[in-house]
Each structure stands twice: as C-alpha cells, then as structure tokens.
Amino acid sequence: MSFIVAIDGPSGTGKGTITELIAKKYNFQYLDTGATYRCVTLKMIKENIQLNETEKIKEMLKNIKIDFEGEKVFLDGEEVTKKIREEDVTNMVSQVSHLQEVRTAMVELQRRMSEGKEVILDGRDIGTNVFPNAEVKIYLDASSEERAKRRFKQNQEKGIDIPFEEVKKNIEFRDQNDKNAKVGALKQAEDAVYIDTTNLSIKEVEKKVSDVIKKKQKLIKKIENGYVMTKDTKWKRFSRGFVKGFLGGLYTIVFRPKMNGLENLPKDEGYIICANHMNYLDAAGLILCNKFPIRFIAKADLYRFRILSYLGHLFDIIPVKRDKSDINSIKMCLKALKNKEVLGIFPEGTRKGLEKNAKVKNGAVFLAEKAKVKIIPVGISGSFKPFTKVTFNYGKPIDVQEFKKDGSEWLDKASNKVMNDIIMLTKKED
Ligand code: DC
Predict the structure, then answer these.
(1) Ligand 1 within 6 A of 124 CB?
(2) Fewer CB within 10 Å, N side or C side of the chain?
(3) Domains of the chain
(4) Is-contact 423 274, C-beta < 8 A?
C-alpha cells in the first residue's frame, strides 16, 4: 500500500531527527531528499563541473546512481554517507539544488524511489511539488534564533568554532535563498499541518507528527470500511422507504421540484442517468423525488462523514476512489446495470466542473458501452434557494454504441455529446 508522509521546512527545525524517529516507529522507508542533492553536488565536485555548465550537468545526471540502504547513502556504488556532509558539499549544495535540470532529475528519482511504498520524506518541496497528494503533510518551523542556537551547539560538539551571530546570519541568508528560489522554493503546502518547534522537545514534536499520522490512518480505514457495501436487509429497505418519504417530502416543500420528460426513460432495462452537477442537492433531488431507485456513483471519501456514510449505504451509492482506476467500483456498476438497475453519474466529475473547465469524464459512456445500456441526459436548472422551483428535464436516450465507428476518440466524442445534451436540457423552458 502506498502511504506518503511529507515533512518540509527550513534547516535546523529537526526535520531529519523527527523523520528518522517516525520512520522507525511506523516502519516507513526513510528518504532524505537533501541527501540526493548532496550526492549530485559531490559528483559535480569530483568531476569538476561548474554550476553554469548545463550540458555537462545534464550528461552527468543521465548516469548518476543514488541508493539508500538504511542510513547509508551510496553514490555510483560507493558509500558516501559521511562525504556528503563535508564542508565543500555543504557550501555548494544550496546552489546546486536550485538548478532546474538537477531539480527535475531529483524529483523524478524521489518519486520513483517512493512509488507504491510507505515512505516518509523530508525536504523543502515534498508536499508542494514532489508529492502534492501525499497522505500526510507536515511543515516544521522554528524561529531563526532557536535554529541558530541548535546549529551553534552542534558545531561546538563537533569542535567547529563559528561565532553565534555568524551562524544566525548564515541561517537567515539560507532561509531567504530557499524561500525565494525560482525552482523548488521552500513553501508550506496549503493543506500541511504547521508545527512550530521553537519551544518543543524532540519527543513533543514526534508526538505531534505521530498524532497526525494516526488520525490519517484511522480516516483511511474508515473510508475503506465505508467502501464495503452493506446487504439489502428488510430493515434497510424499511429505513430507506422512511428516509426517502421524509426527506423527499421536505425537498418537495422547499424546492418544488418539477420533472419533465419522464416518458423518455427506458422500461424494464438498466440505464445511466447523466446530469449537470451544481451542488449536492441535485443528486438528492434525483434520488428522493423519483419513484424508481437511482444508485449514484460518488467519491469514496464522502464516507468519512457519518451522515453521508449512513445515507450512502442506505441508498446503495457506489463509491469510487478518485484518481485511480477503481476496478471494484466498475464491477459493481456493471453488475447493477446487468440487474436492470438505474445508475446516476455526473460527467462533470465534480461540482460545477464545467465552470472550473474540468474535462468531461467518460466513465458513464465507458460503462454504457460495456453494459450495452442507454444514457439518459438530464438538465437540472434552478437556484436551489428555498421556496424556488427546481426543474429536472429528462432528454432522449443516447445510444453510445453508435459512436464507436468514430475511431480512437469515440469515448470523448460520445461524452461530449452527453454533456451537450445536458446543457441544452438545462436551458429548455417548461
Ligand atoms: O536538508 P539538507 O541540509 O541535507 O539539504 C541540502 C540542501 O538541499 C539544502 O540547501 C536544501 C536543499 N534541498 C532542497 O532544495 N529540496 C529538498 N527537497 C531537500 C533539500
């Protein structure tokens, strides 16, 4: 299973120490991304390549081999764990790490090394650039005064004698460099958890990070559990009838739904209803105000909300994991269509997808072709303000098989036809 933890932040915040502790605790693979930039720097020093020799750098990057074995780092087969921490590398690495070619190659390497694994990575741009979809994102920070104190103490332990003021100035200079870099700038991801470590011990920081990871793991489990369909028992049917009657009644009072074109619905066969998607109330209207049952397809993470999880199970909503080809979900849809059930899909993929310029999704057409069923376009119009009318216009069935003669792009063409019909139907007068 893939699980990515991204730890970003400026130097001296204890990223390395925390990342190592967490990796041990959870048995995650640890990827020190700073070490990858240090390896490139060491190789440039060894081969006497200057920062402005772009072609030579590109050539060198083609053959570079960086490996990690526990805490050991290998460059082209040679162990360099200590060498990459020496002064010559440290003095040059910041500039090297901000070269576009180096950045591109290292980001690719970091992604490849982490693919499909449970990994914790520390760096500067992990949550923003390397893994923008990481399961957990942490941004560690501390005042420059505190970070300088930590570095000063480390230096003294190593017998390095640099005055405190100079250490602090260096740290502030590096911060500015890292934050203003043209490529791979240090930046907190919007969805990262910010932890100020200035007045915290390592143990306290570790606990905070660990709490975030545990919470996320629990959430993923919850979604996975929600993903399991429940059996259609007598009690479930009774509850569904009751909830549909109650909420459907309420919906009718508040939105005065009007259904046009119901005569277009096929009889005694499965089909797919495709509608425009403005908010959750459009799906609710289709489910609650039609006599026949519609099973909607919805993103699996809805199941993290208790009430939506309950309603999802009650109305047999088919969950789909976003950004992945979800075979399980496809199988459930095909089975339902074979059983002559009605599916509901929003081809926009997300609320107000067209307004956001999202590409029309072709899942509905794909399923219709596989199950040999028709698609019914539905245009929904209305403001969804209480006590105003909402209109549902059902259009003529679309047979997607006819588009297959259009060659390799037939899926997109058929999906666009469905979406265009939906748009026309939203404009249709009563
Ligand atoms: O964390 P470190 O000191 O080993 O990092 C070495 C250099 O690499 C440092 O100047 C910041 C840079 N770096 C980066 O730009 N992006 C990363 N993901 C990791 C490190």
Answers:
(1) yes
(2) N
(3) 3-224 (3.40.50.300), 232-426 (3.40.1130.10)
(4) no
